Amino acid sequence: MLEAMFAIPGDLDLPTGGYAYDRRVLELLPRFGVAALHLPLPASFPDPTAADLDETARALAGVAPHAVLLIDGLAYGAMPAAVIGCARAPIVALVHHPLCLEAGLAATRREALRLLEAAALARARKIIVTSPLTQRTLIADFAAPAHKITVAEPGTDPAQRAAHGGQPPLQLLSVGAIVPRKAFHLLVRALSPLQDRDWRLTIAGPTDRSPQALADVQAAIRTTGLGQRIALVGPVDKDRLAGLYASADAFLMASLYEGYGMVLAEAMACGLPIVCTSGGAAAETVPDGAAIKVPPGDERALSLAIERLLDDRELRQRMAQAAWLAGQKLPRWEDTARIVAEVIAEVAR
User: Fold this and answer.
1) What is the 3-state secondary structure of the chain?
2) Of 133, 137, 135, 85, whose CA–CA distance to 114 is shortest?
3) How far apart are CA 231 and CA 220, in angstroms?
4) Which domains are seen in the chain, by residue range?
5) Of the residues 2, 134, 234, 244, which has the fewest C-beta atoms closer than 10 A?
6) Is residue 236 within 8 Å of residue 285, measured between CB atoms?
7) Is the peptide bond before 169 cis (omega within 30 degrees of 0)?
8) Total-model pTM
């Protein structure tokens, strides 16, 4: 059996799409002939301290040369060449989405991250990305050779189809970490003109990633007077999340950029009609028949799209059916792990 070390920064149990991807790949790689072990890296990435970089260099140096070193892009894209050079094992980089495309970065920081990640990717033997869009982005903007890149889209699990009771209040759901890129404050403001409709919104996801983003969404809830309509429930476990999807009438996403959009795939797997932005890969993840798509950051367009969905039950039903059919065709996690294992095997040869 091939050997691999999967280097991941921070807490592997965090309830975000990137960490969920990493957990499932780690779990399933042995089925495809790869004995994979978790190599923890400091949680400070992508803004590591000097001490954390020293710790990372030692961790990479400790991986045996005959193993393959798979490194999550949250850390790898922020690693200086001197740190990467300590690795004796061949490197496969996993890029969920380029670090410089995170919202809220200063221009100088954005450019520094772009240069750092481009240099890091040049040192990787192979690169795994989670969407065709990210593949195209790395080729166009990071000078990554196409032959080095493999797409391994996130998998989905079979899910219970949402009940779509359709009785007021309509249950709206949005899922994701409260960070600037997810733009939950814009979603709240987009709902403000729709207070004459009967709806409730649940936002599920970690609230400790960005104090400013959390303050922004809380301020939006307060200033719009929607405190009785919108529930920020924080991180939820797998069973609670499945229950939220199953009881929802529609799924909303205001994200400015998505490397893939795992929550969109989860919503489709449950047959939920979707209103989302076209930021990043989101436009490609969801077929047009299953979603109303609006430009990222366009609050008015988002509000009008949600209004259409709230007011037209037949439209919701058609979109729900389209989402359900698309959801049944999505890749499973076994497909994802198999592709990653094939890349590891190629590098190990």
Assistant:
1) CEEEEEEEECCCCCCCHHHHHHHHHHHHHHHHCEEEEEEEECCCCCCCCHHHHHHHHHHHHCCCCCCEEEEEHHHHCCCCHHHHCCCCCCEEEEECCCHHHCCCCCHHHHHHHHHHHHHHHHHCCEEEECCHHHHHHHHHHCCCCHHHEEECCCCECCCCCCCCCCCCCEEEEEECCCCHHHCHHHHHHHHHHHCCCCEEEEEECCCCCCHHHHHHHHHHHHHHCCCCCEEEEECCCHHHHHHHHHHCCEEEECCCCECCCHHHHHHHHCCCCEEEECCECHHHHCCHHHEEEECCCCHHHHHHHHHHHHHCHHHHHHHHHHHHHHHCCCCEHHHHHHHHHHHHHHHHC
2) 137
3) 13
4) 2-155+331-348 (3.40.50.2000), 170-327 (3.40.50.2000)
5) 234
6) no
7) yes
8) 0.92
How far the first Cα of the chain sits from its last, in Å, is 12
Alpha-carbon dihedral angle through residues 241, 244, 247, 248, given to the nearest 10 degrees = -120
Render each residue's pLDDT in the chain as its tens digit; 349 residues.
999 999 999 999 988 889 999 999 999 999 999 999 999 999 999 999 999 999 999 999 999 999 999 999 999 999 999 999 999 999 999 999 999 999 889 999 999 999 999 999 999 999 999 999 999 999 999 999 999 999 999 999 999 999 876 678 999 999 999 999 999 999 999 999 999 999 999 999 999 989 999 999 999 999 999 999 999 999 999 899 999 999 999 999 999 999 999 999 999 999 999 999 999 898 899 999 999 999 999 999 999 999 999 999 999 999 999 999 999 999 999 999 999 999 999 999 8
Q: Which residues contact 284 (CB under 8 A, 6 or more apart)?
A: 131, 132, 133
Which two structure tokens, joined as six digits, stand for 119? 């240099």
Instruction: Tell me the C-alpha distance between 334 and 349, whole Å.
Output: 22
Residue pair 174/254 in contact (Cβ under 8 Å)? The answer is: yes
The answer to whether 349 and 79 are in contact (CB under 8 A) is no
- Scan for tokens 């710790």, then name that residue: 55
